[in-house]
Amino acid sequence: MDNEELINQLEQHKSEITTAAHWNSYAKSVGLPDSNKLIANYGSWNELKRRLGLPVTNTSYTPSEIRTIVKKHKNHVRTQSVWDLYAREHSLPSSKTLIKSFETWSEVRKYVGNKRERKPTYTKKDIKDILKNHAPNFKNRTQWDVYAKENKLPTYKTIKKFFDYEEITKILNKEKKINLSKDDLIRIALKHKDIFLTSSMAKWDIYASENNLPRSTTFHKHFGSWNTAKNVIKPM
Fold this sequence. Notes:
- The chain has helices at about 5-10, 20-30, 35-40, 45-50, 65-70, 80-90, 95-100, 105-110, 125-135, 140-150, 155-160, 165-170, 180-190, 195-200, 200-210, 215-225, 225-235.
- By secondary structure, the protein is mainly α.
């Protein structure tokens, strides 16, 4: 569907195009694109409103208005990306507009009394304890990162700075994939055949790491080479 066709479709729903947050809730219920997709198509939320003949949010603010806005919404004056997401959903000025008034983002934070957020620092012992305490919730890399974000824990990337894959597996008390037999490896490869046959060793290792599977070197060790392992699996 091109932009003009989409505009025609949105005409029937334009009474719901108020704030991006309201639209997202409504759009989900009727199967229409969310605000992010519409902004990507038309450049901005206000431009979409203009195309539909709707009144647009004020885009010119006095210094006094800017200060009133940031004071009122100070809890969201964190990083620029956090503010911009919140601002887009509530029809507020972007971080760039705030910076024009304050000169720097640091000055915006300083005005509302918010200190710069710093990433937590971890020791090797901290990471090991976290892995042990949350072992039942560690299924694979992708799942862990979702869980970690929800529970304010270190991401998989942070954990990898302290321990390699085999060490993580040992701490989590997971089964060691390097001790699997050739038949076990064949069963694993067949289960993930589409990925296995189209991957280089490096690409497979990324997938394997995310899904708690044996690395390419394990296949290489049992079959003699990565390509030989593929040739065994291919006709099956």
